[in-house]
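anyone seen this seq b4? input:
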Amino acid sequence: YTIPETGKVRLSVLDMLGQEIAVLEDATKKAGRYEVEFSAAGLATGVYLYKITVDGETRDFISTQRMVISH
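predicted toks r here
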């Protein structure tokens, strides 16, 4: 993921009911590009969501996207 300015970042994985099942990132980050590894071991095959929330210095950002896990 890429953030344009310093801010508090939370990246989480949700089930289709919107329940948080994993937190991949929860920290203040400087502007830049980051990578996070996610292991889907233990999760059933199916559709999940990932959500990134950034509380930035001048603006906030929230994005939720679908992902498919297949084993």
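The mean pLDDT is 94. The chain is about 0% helix and 60% strand. kinda curious what u guys think
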